[in-house]
What does this fold into?
Amino acid sequence: MNEVLSKIQMMGIVPVIKLDDPKDAVPLAKALCDGGLPCAEVTFRTAAAEESIRLMREAFPQMLIGAGTVLTTDQVDKAVNAGASFIVSPGLNPKVVSYCVERNIPITPGCSTPSDVEAAIELGLEVVKFFPAEAAGGLAMIKAMAAPYVNMKFMPTGGINASNLTSYLDFPKIIACGGSWMVKDDLVKAGDFDKITELTREAVKMMLGFELRHVGINASDESQADNIASSFEKLFGFEKKAGNSSIFAGKAIEVMKQPYLGEKGHIAIQTNYIERAIFHLQNQGFTFNEESKKYDKNGRLVAIYLNEEFGGFAVHLVQK
It folds into this structure.
């Protein structure tokens, strides 16, 4: 998968926006960035699209900006010249797709049938937009279509919202979801960019699903670790279970047999999608200890520590 599509996959959500007036472009882009989603698909449904992309690119050069509802090669040129990094179309137009492929412009055309997917494969694509997602059968349809096309991935758009977002993203052949619930037209027209920031932040929070997994306590040695875990078992009935490097008391308390990362210990935070969580936290300026990565037997990342400590505690992410 190319770099742009890989970044979209880490983003997880692509806000789909329609702008009637270019004056709203920069404050809307700021609202999305402040909300934790420096990404936008600006649809060519209005005459303001080209100028809006240009203004957003100038104000936020690091933002991932694409053009949506692109129907012609002329619109491709206008979008790319204005600063769009990727193209999205509602259907699969072989002329438009070929034009983009020949110029190494990432494009995800809309597909809703196996025939569409086969046409996309023939044109050399590895990711397509599934549109209109809910109306075309939703997640069940994507799973059914994905089965025979083992290398194809999907970006569903249309009917995606806060309530069904993670059910889509849980399916590994979905790289991201397009949605407009955090950038509703009435909010943009009213200039309520604070509300857009709030909804965007809520969308990211819901996607990542951060929750406390356990608290780790640094003991000086195995004997002290056993005593501490035994105390929690006696006090609260948290069953003690010894492992290679630590002893758990229930699921919420882990006592290290010898001091590990963190002056006092560590806090484990679980997340729906650990690699997306890393991406989003890095965008906020946090850094990670690459040497602390842990993988499961299938080679999937399941844990990693941040470099930063908080109140004497190290923090690590854990895949749910």
